[in-house]
Amino acid sequence: MNLPAWIARRYFFSRKKRSFISWLSILSMLGVGVGTMALVVVLSVFNGMDELNRQIFKTFEADMTVSPKEGKRFLASPELLNRLRQTTGVSLLTTVAQDNALARYANGQTVVRLKGVDDSYLQRKQLDSALLEGRLRLRDQGVNYAIVADGVRNDLSISAVDILTPLEILYPQSGQSFSVLNPDAFNREALTVSGVFFIESKYDNFVLIPVNVARSLLGYGPNEVTSLEIQLKPGTDENAAKQALQAIVGEKLLVQSRDDLNVDLYRTIRIEKLLVAITLSFIILVASINIFFTLSMLVIEKKEDIRILYAMGATTGLVRRIFMTEGAIIALTGAFTGLVLGIVICLAQERYGFIGMGTVSSIIDAYPVRLDTSDLVLVSVLVILVTFLTSWFPAQRAASVK
To answer: Its principal location (predicted)?
Structure first.
């Protein structure tokens, strides 16, 4: 029989009457439980937001992007393109010409993010799940088409089924004095809208057109591009592929993964997660301080019992373990309950989506959550550490009673 644990359980569960110390113990247990539950839920929400952003970026952006370290464009020679396509792990390579431009449709106009891509872009099938209306096509039977984001469609009141009204794209000519009254100051292209897509508000001003049309508008040469987008084969090691591609493109060009392009957002999410975790940890610490007062008052109440134990031959170590175990029972019971409730809430939210995002424009209806084993371990370690610190001093005081 574990004597310290048996005595501690008697102190906690077998009281003949509910004293102030008993209620304080229950309050401490509830405080630790609520703090633990909140910490599990909040950390899981941040994990869900991180995963959601990765899924959003994966819908529009490539696995790897090659761009110039200086300037907006560079020359992508056929030799360079062939070497990149032959690199181990490369599935598709898309040439991109991208810049801001003015879009007109009927009586409306707006500034858009023009992205010219070649035929391989649609072979990536990233936009298939994001298509709202029409079809995904850029060129068919000699006709150039544009695929517009839902934000552009709303700004210009575009109809994807109206093949008679063209979408006109205008871009200032280099070397010409800028004037909206000068018709020769702009390069112009008219395209038919073939489809509308929606991913997230970040991409709501994009217009996709054939890369040759984009080059003509932007005044680029035949092999000039803004970037090269590379899609990798499933199971390819991204770090190894990134190093291999960087060795091919040389020092003047930069190879970035999808995470590299959005590193600021991921860093912000991690910092917010850390700050919230620290804040909720203080709440658990405050709840655990009640354990300190509970044990301190229990030591005073049980002085006679402690003296009897010493008279029966108990050691200071045994008395110390009794009150350490008492603190562990209070804290770990609350922590275990909080962990279970937190996990249940997260699993229920993940399955049923009880708590909605509250915004009409959101791409999902409910807050995303994802349980991470490392977070559960971290919360458990935190509670154990706080329990040890808040229980040690009262237990030491109990051991010194004579």
So the answer is: membrane
398 within 8 A of 307, measured Cβ to Cβ: no
C-alpha 139 chain-centroid distance = 35
- The domains of the chain are located at 3-58+265-399, 71-251
User: Is the per-residue pLDDT at 81 higher than 90?
Assistant: yes
Strands 253-257 and 139-140: unpaired
Dihedral sign, Cα of residue 365, residue 152, residue 57, residue 375: negative
Task: Kindly report whether the global pTM for this prediction surpasses the value 0.85.
Answer: no
pLDDT band at 390 (very low <50, low <70, confident <90, very high): confident
Task: Name the band, by pLDDT with cuts 50, 70 and 90, for residue 364.
Answer: low
* Selection from 328, 256, 330, 371 nearest residue 30 by Cα: 330
Neighbours of 77 (CB within 10 A): 10
CA nearest neighbour of 122 among 133, 111, 130:
130
Q: Is the pLDDT of residue 17 over 50?
A: no
C-alpha 14/C-alpha 225 separation (Å) is 78
- Residue 390's contacts (CB-CB under 8 Å, 6 or more residues apart) are 288, 289, 291, 292, 295, 327, 331
pLDDT of 182 reads 59
